[in-house]
Amino acid sequence: MNPELGLAAPLTIALSKGRIFDQTLPLLATAGIRPLDDPETSRKLILETSNPRVKLVIIRASDVPTYVQYGAADLGVAGKDVLLDHGGEGLYEPLDLRIARCRLMVAGLPDAPTRAPASGRLRIATKYVRSAERYFAGKGQQVEIIKLYGSMELAPLVGLSDLIVDLVESGNTLKANGLVPLEHITDISSRLVANKASWKMKHAAVTALIAALRGALGAERTAASALESN
Fold first, then answer.
1. Cβ of 230: how many Cβ atoms within 10 Å?
2. 68 φ/ψ angles, rounded to the nearest 5 degrees
3. Are 13 and 215 in contact (CB under 8 A)?
4. How many CA atoms lie within 13 A of 99 on its CB side?
5. Is residue 14 within 8 Å of 192, Cβ to Cβ?
6. Residue 224, Cβ neighbours under 10 Å: how many?
């Protein structure tokens, strides 16, 4: 794909700082989209890019689907965990970028019960309320969900919950706190999402960018296969 991506319409892309942002930037660079300001030092929330028809808006990861849904951004990059809890209303999900991979899991102390006694309910600490509810409902279990925003591993240690539902990458944080992964809910990676109105009104620009990103992913796969064969 030509690195100087020509776009028929201006695009706004919502991103969140951190791991997803760092791994998305090289993919965008293949389409000639590079922030003009250093995102690590700039306090700007709207970043101009090397393509004058593309802007990046920097927001919280959990807000990316909402900005895209309501048209404040044409496109965004969000983890599947965030999309599952958002529900995906008003969004298309045209591309799995296969970055920021991890797993959504049930975890707890090694001897933690995974089913409540007949007279009670398990207490589950998580920030992924919808995903946890769906998962346990699918198992025919009624649970009490306790919403937390961080330090999830602490909840079973102090008796706040029986189990947690959280993202697990290496499992080192669980292990350091004496917890273990108990049940796998789903694999997680980051996805490109598009506003439905932008998909129709700016279709040529949106699909051109998607094609450039898909090409970048294909090149990465080819390079990885070449390394493995050597």
1. 5
2. -70, -40
3. no
4. 22
5. no
6. 10
pTM of the model: 0.87
State the first-to-last Cα distance of the chain, in angstroms, to the nearest integer: 26
Of 18, 17, 12, which Cα lies nearest the Cα of 49?
Answer: 12
For residue range 131-160, what is the model confidence (pLDDT) as tens digits?
999 999 999 998 999 999 989 999 999 999
Closest CA to 209 of 87, 126, 89, 97: 97
Q: How confident is the model at residue 116 (pLDDT cuts 50, 70, 90)?
A: confident
Among residues 158, 159, 129, the alpha carbon closest in space to that of 145 is found at: 129
The owner of tokens 């965990």 is 81
Mean pLDDT score of the chain: 90
H or E stretch covering 104: strand 102-108
CA distance 153 to 217: 34
Is residue 81 within 8 Å of 131, Cβ to Cβ?
A: yes
Distance in angstroms (rounded) separating the CA atoms of residues 196 and 183? 35
Structure tokens at 28: 């965008």
220, 224, 229, 230 alpha-carbon torsion, rounded to 10°: 110
